[in-house]
Amino acid sequence: MNKHVCKICSKKHHYLIHTEEINKSSFKPENNTYHALKLQTNKNVLLSTAVCNTVDKHGNYQTYRVLLDSGSQANFCTMEFARKLGLTLTKNNLPISGINNSLCQSNYSVTVKLYSRYENFTLDIVCAVLPNLTDNLPAESFCSSHLNLHENLFLADPNFNISSNIDVHVGAQYFLNLILPNKFVRNQHFPLIQETRLGCILAGNLPLNVTRNNSASSFFIRNDNKLLSKQIEKFWEVEEPILVKQTSHDNSICERNFIENTIRNKDGRFIVTLPRKSDNIKLGDSLNNAKNRFLSLERKLIQDPSFKKGYSNFINEYINLGHMSELNSKDLLIPDSEVFYLLHHAVFKETSLTTKLRVVFDGSAKSSNGLSVNDTLMIGPTVQQDLFSIILRFKVHNYVITSDITKMYRQILVTQKDSNLQRILWRKNPEQDLTHYALRTVTYDTTSASFLATRLVQIANDNNYQFPNACRAVLNDFYVDDLITGADSVHEIKQLKTDHKLTNDRKFDSLSSNELEFTLEFFIHQSQLAYFKSEINYLQNQRFILKQSKLSSLDPFLDYKGLLRVGGILEHPNLSFDKKHQLILHPHANITRLIIHSEHLCLLHAGLQLTHSSLRQRFWIVNAKIAIRSIVRKCLKCFRFNADNQSQQLGQLPSSRITPSRAFSSCAIDYGGPIMIRHGRQKSNILSKAYIALFICLVTKAIHLELV
Predict the structure, then answer these.
(1) What would the mean pLDDT of 656-667 be, rounded to a whole number?
(2) Quick one: DSSP state of residue 461?
(3) What span, in angstroms and rounded, lies between the C-alpha atoms of 600 and 607?
(4) Going from the N-terminus, what domains does the chain have, and what CATH number goes with each?
(5) Which residues contact 273 (CB under 8 A, 6 or more apart)?
(6) CB 134 within 8 A of CB 67
(7) pLDDT for residue 340
(8) Which of 397, 428, 577 is CA-nearest to residue 496?
(9) Cα–Cα distance between 482 and 506 in angstroms, integer?
(10) Tally of CB atoms within 10 A around 157
């Protein structure tokens, strides 16, 4: 006997004797716990249900009934529903317990597509599979006429009053995303009507005792033992491949900013716009801090001539290459809130084979209001593959090749406006005045520099048709500015090296027609991915799009380049492929506005109809007339030439103008001049001013001139 007291029964023995209690309690700390409550009540409460569409494995539309529950942290569906649609079952173990420790477990999960009948809205919901979810809802059918619902009300569940089974249970993860602002509350005895993306749902008290079964159901799910959950996750995360992360809102804005604002100058260099978090964020004064830091740096340069020489050489290289330029007096008048002065200092790297001293610009230094330029910029998504995957591929090649991009960041220009956020101070000698410079290229150590530089590497797709192997290596085997790739044979590695050389040595003095075409198709493709993502996904996976889509009437398809085009009925006429199947453009995309503007100028400022007709030879713009009209109306030249001539309203004629009389009995007088006249003799040099008096007869219009 143990002298200590048992912590289970308080008797003098060891608590491990209670094997049943120990085994029972050991099951409690599970990862996810589902709680269900069912009780008796005298009130009739209506739960929110909806009817949605989905597509089974054969591509046929099916309808199912959904229970919307804001108190649940998980989603469920019945096994019968999963088998009916032919959904793929994924093995999992989800312990579920109810009130009074009633236990069950879900062994499978499925992904259910939800299509709204109310609007163009789609959700992918991961559901745990159970044999049954709940009793039929409502408990008994009742007559909905007692609720006096408006006949034009679009109900999420048209048969909400008919007792039937529930196929899917949607929890709080998606519930709040479905809610729209409009709702109607009559009084506490009637159910609330709430507008959602699925239609109008009803929930709450019913005015009549319409059912004899007074049982009510409530659902609640929570996550217990989060620490244990995190520890377990680490085991399987090590074994799992890296998953593609969902794109955040800021990353989407960064990507769209890049697609819509990146251009190429006549020399072939790309010009990018820095992705700012908001245009309303104002910077403080950064000039004083930059002055103090530079004066401190200058004292160090004077004390070490070799240090000064290396630092000056680096800055001079920046200036000579056009990577920074001196500001004029007009530029210095821009408000402090729209400019930022970067601090700079030297970094030494003795192992470097090229540049042992490098000047680093500090974008994180704070201005007078506590904000730095890095605080105003978005980081942007990671667009290159992870280093681990690149090295793994590198090891499987029989022959390998490595390369890097020289001065990668400084190959990319920034806009004139954004260069004001990259100002620095510099002078060669203390005897000179401080000179203000603006950095014209993407600057390392700024928040968005890595994204902008690596994102431009992805534009290797421009040359995919000519150099597919090189482009594949650039897209998959680049880590920042380093290329780590290879091939299986010497011939392939030589061809890869040749393709890279041809790509890098290409001159950009003037773009060829093929290059312009590649560039145009690239930006159209990026625009379509941004605005027609769901339609493209459906066409890639199922080869059809939903009828609710705005493009459904166009019978769209993807060509061999992945571009979204109009289907139509012009397959047999003797027309070009572009005229038969126009490229589909979104009216709000920046590339669409540029195409419309360019066509408007090429047609010598043509009007709406002519511009539209010309564009339709190759492009199909959704809501084209509205988009074209907005561009044409903003054209300054068209506005000037189409301006209405203003005419002044004539006043009433005076009686003297219309009453017969002798000449000059009624007259008007005016003066002209001055004129210079000579006094005295013909050769006199004395000049004086004189004026001409003009007398006009108001009746006969005769005139008389007098020198005054």
Answers:
(1) 86
(2) G
(3) 8
(4) 1-30 (no CATH), 32-226 (no CATH), 253-381+408-460 (no CATH), 513-641 (1.10.340.70), 655-707 (no CATH)
(5) 257, 258, 261, 262, 414, 415, 418
(6) yes
(7) 94
(8) 397
(9) 20
(10) 23
What is the mean pLDDT of the segment spanning 444-455? 88
Residue percentage of the chain with pLDDT more than 90: 28
| Residue from 467, 469, 504, 478 nearest 394 by CA | 478
More confident residue, 396 or 198: 198
CA-CA-CA-CA torsion sign (490, 491, 495, 498): positive
| Alpha carbon distance 708, 686 (integer Å) | 17
Beta strands across the sheet bearing 192-196 = 45-46, 199-205, 192-196, 179-184
Q: Is the backbone peptide bond immediately before 131 cis, with ω within 30 degrees of 0?
A: no
DSSP string, 134-181: -S-BSSS---GGGG---TT--BSSTTTTS-B---EEE-HHHHHHHEEE
Q: Which two tokens stand for residue 50?
A: 């909806």
Dist. CA 67–CA 84, nearest whole Å: 18
Question: Is a pLDDT exceeding 60 seen at residue 498?
Answer: yes
Element (H, E) at 230: helix 226-239
Side-chain half-sphere CA neighbours of 160 within 13 A = 26
Beta strands in 284-434 (DSSP E): 324-326, 343-348, 357-362, 399-404, 413-414, 423-426
- Beta carbons within 10 angstroms of residue 402's beta carbon: 11
Tell me the pLDDT band of 291, cut-offs 50, 70 and 90: very high
Which tens digits make up the pLDDT trace of 309-365?
Answer: 989 999 999 999 889 999 988 888 888 888 999 999 988 876 666 667 889 999 999
Query: Model confidence at 40, in pLDDT bands (50, 70, 90)?
Result: very low
Q: Of 162, 164, 139, 170, which Cα lies nearest the Cα of 45?
A: 139
Decide: helix, strand or coil at residue 55.
Answer: strand
Cα separation of 660 and 678, whole Å? 41
What is the C-alpha to C-alpha distance for residues 599 and 82, in angstroms, rounded to an integer? 52
Tell me the pLDDT band of 183, cut-offs 50, 70 and 90.
confident
Count the alpha carbons within 13 Å of 159 in the hemisphere toward its beta carbon: 15
Strands of the sheet containing 687-697, edge to edge, are: 667-678, 687-697, 703-707
CA 259 to chain centre: 9
pLDDT category of residue 24 using cuts at 50, 70 and 90: very low
Q: Is 464 exposed, middle or buried (0-12, 13-18, 19+ CB in 10 A)?
A: middle
pLDDT level of residue 593 (50, 70, 90 thresholds) = very high
